[in-house]
Amino acid sequence: MLRLPKFDVKNPATVEEAVAMIFEIDGEARFIAGGTDLNPNMKHRLFTPERVVALGGIDELHGVSFGADGAARIGAMVSLTNIVKNAELSAAYPALCQAAKLVSSPQLRNMGTLGGNVMLDTRCQWYNQTYFWRNALGYCLKKDGSKCHVIEGGSKCVAAASNDTAPALMTLNAELEFATANGRMRMPIADLWQADGIWNKKIPHTDLLVAIHLPKPAANSRGAYGKLRDRGSIDFPLFGIAARLDFASDGSIQDASLCAVALQARPWPLKKAAALLIGTRPGEDCFSAAVEQAATLAAKQCRPMPNIPGDHDYRHLMVPVYTRRTLHAAADGAGPVHHV
Q: If exposure means fewest CB atoms within 10 Å of the residue's CB, which of 46, 70, 152, 181 is most exposed?
């Protein structure tokens, strides 16, 4: 049986109290939202914080609201289940709700939060193992060792970003609101990431994600999310891709966005592939040709590594397949694309 290490639990009532509690001790402290990622990582001794600051009792972190300008604010503690069930979010931001729906299982979506999924730790098949397993192997760059088991002689951790909602939020131009030791700040989600599997965010883990802000979508905007995984539930993505298509009044695509995940330490925007779709019209040959070109280009840009479970050559073969299917699903206003 894997047991949690000993730790102190604090239950703040406000965001400011939560941030202060992180800095009250000299040892390591961590925020905990739904606990679906942190708890197993603590059992594996990947993290052994002396203090855990529980966020469930902070009212500001809950709830979904829409402003007069049509923009949405989603509290970081809103569960993935409630994201999926929210009819207004589903209508305005279909790719986000589809991605949330494909995270893990119903039980874990009930506990897991949108903020927790955004701030998810990177994953690697050599890292996300028990302490006994990692000790026998000799550890790795990300935890306790000096060797990368993915790339021989590698000096940089290539553990993969595996958060399904991140690419969807990237295509939607989301902004993230953080509470820090120096007050509040907002940043585009595109500016959050860095190519470092050990910690793939540009902000420290002591900054608290308060809310996700989404601009009002274009008048005729559609989106979809595609997820490759071994099983129809539970699994993290072997490859994920989000698409957004904005349509002009004549039915042509006036703007497009594509973003992939589960390749490297950060979500990967596919700007050149998305640009190929602009000016085309679904239902016409030019759109089908552009989709094929975008899928081919995505396969050239996306090179899966043996950093997560699943054959990386097979994952690479599936990049154009899921890119193609997801773009057609977005154009048709269809549901998520995934293995069942």
A: 152
